[in-house]
Write the structure tokens for this entry.
Amino acid sequence: MNVRVSDIPTQTVGRIDVGQVSISLGEGAETFEAVRGLDFTVAPGELISILGPSGCGKSTLLGALAGHLHVTQGRLAVDDQPILRPSPDRGIVFQQHTLFPWKRVRDNVAFGPKMRGIAKAERRHAADEILRLVGLEGFEHFYPSQLSGGMQQRVEIARVLINQPRVLLMDEPFGALDAQTRSLMQEVLLDIWTKIPTTTVFVTHDIEEALFLADRIIVMSARPGRVIEDIRLPFARPRHSELVTESEFVRLKRHVLNLLRRPANGLPLPRLSPLGTASSQV
Amino acid sequence: MASQRSADGRPAWRWLVRGFSIVGCIALWQLASSLHLNLGVMTFRNVPPPTEVVQSAIVLMKSPKLLAHVTSSLWRVFAGYGAGVVIGIAFGFAIGRSRAASDILLPPLELLRPIPAVAWIPLSILIFPSSELSMIFITFIGALFPIILNTVHGVVNIDRRLVASAQSLGGTPATILWEIVLPGAAPSIVTGLAIGMGTSWFCLVTAEMISGQFGIGYYTWEAYTLQNYADIIVGMLVIGLLGMGSSWLLTTLGQYLMPWRHPTVAR
């Protein structure tokens, strides 16, 4: 029997409370409800996936957890502290291209400590250490544009984890990668998560990815997004790529697929972002 | 022959062709002016040939006048353009970052912007007690608008996700301005600086022709009034060289300040 990191009693920080949360987006006549009545709790150290069709508001919820969006109704809290604004306690990793292009890899990672006023030598040392952990030793002096997509996402994760956040929020972080890099990055993430156990909320629309990574999946409906099922996954850790062919995995995949099947007349909705509606984004 | 490549990868013979093109143009000029070529709408009768221009250039280079003219022009550009850079970037940031600043500053600027800087010359002579100050002012006006507009453009178009990432990593508004908005807008600002440098020189030379006492624009115009026709072309060439030098300076500065744009290090 494998011991899950979240079972280790030392893990006491990183509890997320989502209480009857509704979030409306847009201004004036364009206002719409992105998510409605979300209500669940994430235990300290847990890795959950939020799964749902495009535009269902899963990224909106993530943006609210990060503090970039405000809830219209209900309550969001981490370790009983209400979420009011962005904080290094709640690190967020976007899909792609959010490293600072003008900073070298090491200085991107050291940005958080720099904001906390840590001395240069010390924060660079800390950055190098965490870069080694994500497998990027030797790339400290590169600019982001010189790295592959997968390597850039490793830097993103390192840049967030160096702050020792209570929760790690990920918005389809591997969505822009090719299939092979993507499955490699999933294993990398699990490896990092084992070494630095952190409550993680992983938003994706890839069912297999959600099943492979998470302790628990929260499946959301189309807009306004509501929780339609909360599934605890029975798979042991450490997990390897063979898992995806096991019968229980395939059965759950089919089950979730059925949950997410679009009604016949349903059109796909535009993607939302953790910073609001997609139109107001790049 | 085509397999011979110079340092930046172009075949050597292409450089040869380019060199010949310049030599050819100078030869045509020599021919046209020594033959007093008359094409009806234009005539080369009063155009000095390159050989005379070279002689005048040598004379100017040996005389102390050159230094006086060039330094007074450079000083005016330095002062006027410098003020344009400081005020342009500051206004650009304010307009790009604050709705209130944009509402207060932008309408008058939008009204003044379509007026070419050269059209300010008569008024500026009336406003400023010395012609020196009025020329610096014209240079400043020339630089100001391209710098403001490009700075605003750069600041407004910062990827919101970069700012959000910085906030989530503990950045405060002040540090985000310095660490994210400034470098993010830098490419656009440098473009504004380059355009502003060009218009700055253009305005300065015009202003010097009208109200100067020293300066390379004044020198060129004086050469015309004194009928030293070769000196006109020498003046033009010096203006060209100064403009080229300043834009080279800007490009180099831009590359030095934004190494991430052409990353060659660490590879």
